[in-house]
Design a protein that fits this description.
The protein is of the alpha/beta class. Helix content is about 30%, strand content about 25%.
């Protein structure tokens, strides 16, 4: 069966996304991301390599970081995922809403929450509180990128394991998206002018 032709709107959107990528500023090339992930894996191994931890990937952004990170960890661990939001289609965050709650129990476990970016961190802070209430023995966070600014939801909020700091711009690539696209970009990018 032949492919249907692209609608004018679809074709325009495709061209807009291609142009965005062609003009984007590369803040962190893929080789530097890979080196940063190696460093993060070494730090996690030193702290948790003998603890039989469970890693929870925060969907959707944490998917690529989690995949690349786990292949660097040479010790036994479990993997699960969660999908939580505070927005539910709105512009302001509220109570934590689980789109998909974790299946692997956290009680008595060393838990690692893996995400793509720590920006303002309100959702991450709520997830951490949930893990503590669920009885986790310890809770660590591993994020690929920490955005440099002073708008953190919880003053002093920092990831336990963080590979990269980036300037305060809208970033995409390696799990982070631009309007739902370019999570697959092989590095960290920012749209020109944003």
């Amino acid at each position: 069966m032949p492919d249907k032709p692209l609608s004018h709107d679809h074709e325009r959107h495709y061209l807009d996304m291609r142009t965005l990528m062609e003009q984007a500023d590369c803040l962190v090339p893929q080789a530097a991301v890979e080196t940063a992930l190696d460093r993060m894996a070494e730090e996690i191994t030193a702290k948790l390599g003998d603890k039989l931890p469970v890693f929870y990937c925060v969907m959707n952004g944490g998917l690529i970081t989690t995949g690349h990170l786990l292949t660097r960890l040479g010790f036994p661990l479990e993997v699960d995922y969660l999908h939580a939001t505070r927005y539910r289609g709105g512009l302001r965050g509220g109570e934590l809403f689980w789109r998909v709650s974790p299946e692997v129990p956290m009680a008595g476990r060393h838990v690692v929450i893996v995400d793509d970016i720590l920006d303002e961190g309100a959702t991450l802070a709520a997830i951490l509180e949930y893990c503590k209430e669920a009885g986790a023995k310890s809770v660590s966070t591993a994020v690929l990128v920490d955005k440099r600014h002073n708008r953190k939801a919880v003053p002093g909020l920092k990831a336990d394991f963080c590979s990269l700091d980036v300037e305060d711009r809208y970033v995409f690539g390696f799990g982070m998206d631009y309007k739902g696209y370019w999570r697959n970009a092989p590095g960290i990018f920012a749209p020109k002018g944003l």
